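ENTRY TYPE: protein
WANTED: fold as tokens:
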Amino acid sequence: MYQPAITGTGVFTPEQVITNDELVVAFNAYADRMNAKNAEAIAAGEMAPMEHSSSEFIFKASGIEQRYVIDKSGVLDPEVMHPHLRQRSDDELSLMAEMALDACQKALDMAGVAAEEIDLVICAASNMERAYPAIAIEIQKALGAGGFAFDMNVACSSATFGIQAAADMVRSGSATKAIVVNPEICSGHLEWRDRDCHFIFGDVATATVIERAEDAKGARFDILSTRCATEFSNNIRNNNGFLRRSRPSGVEDRRDMQFMQNGRKVFKEVVPMVSAHILAHLDDEGFGGENLRRLWLHQANKSMNDFIGKKVMGRTPEREEQPNILQDYANTSSAGSIIAFAKYSDDLDPGDLGLVCSFGAGYSVGSVLLRREA
């Protein structure tokens, strides 16, 4: 058995940014258009008018100030309200693979690993650009990696579940050097026309190199243990899928074909689930929350993270102990905790413990206990 370690991370950040103020202008213009279109039904009491959004409402609800996206032109057009993404031919690199390559190369450079040394590629994300062939296999080919590759989808927990799978394979010897990549085009499945969620998501890609600790060329984070759990819930759901055209009204513009959530229930149910999961994981390894120097949580909602961090550490964590990036990136699904780890891990000293945790639809929760090594 080998000791798996994280030796490199990479983050691809799109060039385009949408601020809360920009988003509110577009949403309110759309709301005004819809209210004018349905004026008679609203006057008759047959439907409620759409409420305006505001930057204050968005920040209070989430802690988000802006988000990066692949395309902002369509999102900010009240007649469109979704990104414009060019249809690529089958001979071109897919958009997810293109994003992934950028993040992968940064992670490989940090690890000092050549792409051809990689013998496992896992593309772990909440949505895949197509059903098949696997995006991971396309990334494998574009990188020039060997071995094998596969896609994984556990919604917002995809990255930590992917890290567990890769770490287990490195530990057992079925892979020597793996890369887990999370290209998240969340703007594509967000319902930008819904006031309750139009501000939540952004686009990004992250990558993590995992290899045998003995092969590390520099500083590394040993993966001491991992833990994953799932519990079925409909409180976060997206009903889009390959059977859509086979059903009556399946191809119509339907609300349930985009991201949906019952936010209050999610908060009430997920916060205690995640807190208990982390504490049990630590306890089984002989640690407590007080032993953690850093907690890299899923970046969905600041209030959720504040509650979880306080429960795990037994006190309100200092800002550097539980770093947030969602004010800049918004919710980037599975990539959020990896962005936080990539940006806020270099300052840890040898022997310091940290824990990466992601959670989301399913419900699903995954945690990775790490120790910094020189």
Remarks:
- The longest strand covers residues 220-230.
- The longest helix spans residues 263-284.
